[in-house]
Design brief:
Shape: globular
Number of strands: 13
Distance between the termini: 72 Å
Helix content: 40-55%
Strand order of the largest sheet: 5-6-4-3-7-11-9-12
Mean pLDDT: 89
Length: 765
């Protein structure tokens, strides 16, 4: 297989050829002016509050000091966001220009990861695999690996059945230029227009649809016990437990010996060894096993990884990625290529704020103009050498003289001779390295490198492979690649490269945000802190600040919660923290509130989203901050103190189709639902305390007890509490709701105790 160096050389030798990609700066002069206006108002608010505190002399009111600290924090966050958004770029790719360079195309190993057949139904995984097997790319340069961390015979059975269906599906897609090659999408719509005039096509389409429906039926009706009784290929699963079993690797399809089927890549099932005494490191551990297994079997210089629910939506996705991987003058610009996450079948107006459209369009393209897009864990093409921890050639040649010895590579990569040889060919372009043998002959070597003890005493999980130590191993790994000196590129073709399913329902969304926030905080308090990497390694300072936008989520929750409690405190304790209407400073917070929300609203309009989507995301950001981010902070604090360990929670994958038809009986899937999770205690308490505060403040206003009292609350404090009740309206409804739409009594009780403690605090201080 060609090395990265040979690919680069061949690309640079073709100077007279049209460029494969173009970097397009995105103009945003008006947005920059708006950024500065908001920043100016934030600074004005800080100056006004500081002047008031200094004018009081002696000991200033403590709640004004808290307000000053919170507003200073909000100003810092705004500066961090300005840094990310300041110079956005996008990349235009031209895959049609690769037609004359087919021989230059590198091989690609495609990874699909799944962990639980109940939360991630095998039929979802199968559709993702089938979409990858059918992409427009030379089949002899592709191999697809499926990691089953659940060691499920049902998942293996599903892939085995899918292999037979692929013999029909892949040729059909390529003959008829099918645009979306996930069968559940293709067959969810009516017969294509061509079927009205082409009887032969209609018969073929109908027959294939029937075969797909039979495939789905066989997968969904499969029972683990029944499969194990068959023995044969399932014999290895007989004594396997999910967390205690040997390695199981199955070659479901070998392209090198199956030339009769047009365009069908090799397909390999991998369930790594697990033992209770070893830490298996969740998805990062599974990805590192796939990296090693693929290295000894196919050793492609490029690796693509997708989650089991993220199908290839664009058949030319790999060609688009190659435009970025081969299209720059220097490999340093494309250590990895990341597609912004896009979702199918999402609920209208994004009621749970988890479709992330504005985040990727505004922050994603913004960070692409710094050192590059972060690694999002799915829909990403990596250079294998970057995953091995190797810096770009321009940096490596300045720092390293000669190649490391075999012993050094053994200490870094492990004891497998086959793995070391394959790594040499990737990192150093060693032409003397023998060609990789056929897949069946390398199965024992693959099992060796997937043993749970293989990483002991090596650099895997630290300087090599995906990095351990965080729930968000993806963004941490991308940061390590950036710190090595690489840049990354953002892939955004039309139609989108990949499509995945967004979590639906309040609990699932908050659980996902809690997992992300926990991982970000783990990075922040570790040796992988981006500030340290910016000082001691090659992480660009602006890129460091960009990473902090995400890593500070949990700290944001503290300041946002404190600021949210100032309004209720003032109404209950008969204080104020905002200027009165009659005071000259009143216009500053009013102008800041209106300007910020108009700015944010226009961002959603610019992304062609609705006003309802804007409001839903505003609401969910505050709810997430008061729940998921706050509990993530507590989780990391307990872990840091050695009192608990973080637990990886798999998000349930939805089987709905892109048109949103999931055949469920839920009359209102966009309505907030609740359970007994601790996630719901803080926002429930915040809702109750705002109701109590408004009632107390209104009671004082009616009976006139606040008259003549200096420093009492004004309209600003009432507006803050009223705004928060609007934000937390799902929880207001949940207090009186029933069933899953109602907040459970144990959550209400715990929240009520917190509110009682807060009111006691307000009356005492």
């Amino acid at each position: 297989l060609p090395s990265d160096q040979s690919l680069l050389a061949s690309g640079m030798a073709s100077a007279n050829k049209l460029p494969l990609q173009e970097t397009v700066p995105l103009g945003r002069m008006a947005w920059r002016l708006a950024d500065i206006v908001v920043l100016s108002l934030l600074v004005a608010a800080l100056v006004h509050r500081s002047a008031f505190i200094l004018s009081r002399g002696g000991s200033p009111p403590w709640h004004w000091v808290v307000a000053l600290a919170c507003e200073a924090w909000f100003t810092l966050l705004w500066l961090l966001n300005m840094n990310v958004k300041w110079s956005p770029v996008r990349f235009e790719t031209h895959p049609e220009r690769l037609a004359e360079r087919v021989n230059e195309l590198p091989a690609v190993d495609m990874f699909v990861t799944t962990a639980d057949p109940n939360l991630e139904p095998p039929v979802v995984t199968v559709n993702t695999v089938l979409s990858l097997l059918a992409v427009d790319y030379p089949a002899d340069k592709l191999a697809c690996y499926v990691s089953d961390d659940g060691c499920s015979p049902v998942t293996f059975h599903a892939l085995r059945e899918a292999t037979e269906f692929a013999k029909l599906w892949v040729p059909f897609c390529k003959r008829h230029d099918v645009q979306v090659r996930a069968p559940f999408v293709y067959f969810s719509s009516s017969v294509p227009e061509r079927g009205a005039t082409d009887d032969e096509f209609l018969r073929e389409w109908t027959s294939l649809k029937n075969e797909y429906e039979k495939l789905v039926s066989r997968i969904e009706n499969a029972e683990e016990g029944s499969l194990l009784r068959h023995g044969g290929e399932y014999a290895e699963f007989l004594s396997a437990e999910r967390r205690n079993h040997p390695t199981i690797i199955k070659l479901l399809w070998d392209n090198s010996t199956s030339k009769a089927v047009e365009g069908f890549p090799s397909l390999i099932y991998v369930s790594r060894e697990k033992r209770p005494i070893y830490n298996h490191h969740f998805k990062a551990g599974a990805m590192n096993v796939l990296t090693r297994v693929s290295a000894v079997l196919t050793n492609a210089p490029i690796m693509l990884n997708v989650d089991c629910d993220m199908f290839a939506n664009n058949p030319k996705v790999i060609l688009h990625a190659m435009c970025l991987l081969l299209g720059f003058d220097d490999e340093v610009h494309s250590g990895f290529v990341q597609q912004p996450q896009k979702f199918y079948g999402g609920l209208k107006d994004d009621p749970f704020g988890n479709q992330l459209e504005v985040l990727f369009q505004k922050l994603g393209f913004g960070i692409a103009g710094v050192q590059g897009m972060f690694y999002a864990g799915t829909g990403c093409f990596h250079r294998r050498k970057a995953i091995y921890g190797t810096p770009p050639d321009s940096i490596r040649h300045r720092k390293i003289r000669g190649s490391p010895s075999y012993k050094e590579l053994q200490n870094t990569l492990g004891s497998s001779k086959e793995l070391i040889e394959s790594a040499r060919s990737i990192i150093y372009g060693d032409t003397l390295t023998p060609k990789i043998a056929d897949i069946p002959s390398r199965m024992e070597a693959a099992k060796e490198v997937s043993a749970c003890s293989y990483e002991t005493g090596t650099c895997w999980g630290q300087e090599v492979g995906l990095v351990y130590g965080s729930m968000t191993e993806d963004i941490l790994t991308g940061q390590r690649i950036h710190a090595a000196g690489w840049r990354s590129a953002i892939l955004d073709p039309n139609p989108p490269a990949f499509m995945g399913s967004a979590p639906t329902g309040g609990p699932a969304s908050l659980t996902q945000y809690k997992r992300w926030a926990t991982g970000f905080s783990e990075i922040l308090v570790s040796k992988n802190n981006p500030i340290l990497l910016s000082i001691f390694k090659h992480l660009d300072f602006r890129q460091c600040l960009a990473y902090l936008v995400w890593y500070l989520w949990t700290l944001r929750s503290v300041f946002e919660l404190c600021y949210a409690l100032l309004g209720p405190y003032c109404l209950i304790a008969n204080r104020s923290f905002l200027p009165k209407m009659s005071e000259p400073g009143f216009s500053i917070p009013l102008a800041l509130f209106l300007t910020y929300h108009v700015y944010n609203f226009l961002e959603y309009m610019n992304c062609r989203l609705s006003a309802r989507a804007w409001w839903n995301n505003q609401r969910m950001q505050r709810i997430t901050s008061a729940s998921a981010w706050l509990l993530a902070l507590l989780t990391v604090l307990l872990k840091t103190l050695g009192l608990s360990e973080t637990v990886f929670e798999v998000t349930r994958k939805d089987k709905s189709t892109p048109d949103g038809d999931d055949s469920t009986e839920d009359a209102d899937p966009g309505r907030f639902t609740f359970d007994s999770s601790p996630l719901f205690i803080p926002p429930t308490a915040l809702t109750i305390v705002n109701i109590v505060a408004i009632a107390v403040g209104a009671w004082r206003a009616v009976i006139g007890t606040a008259e003549g009292v200096s420093g009492g609350p004004g309209i600003g404090e009432f507006a803050c509490c009223g705004w928060l009740l609007l934000i937390f309206w799902p929880f207001v409804k949940g207090l009186v709701g029933k069933g899953s739409y109602g907040i459970p009594w144990n959550v209400k009780l715990k929240a009520g105790l917190i509110v009682a403690a807060f009111i006691h605090f307000c009356r005492r201080i």
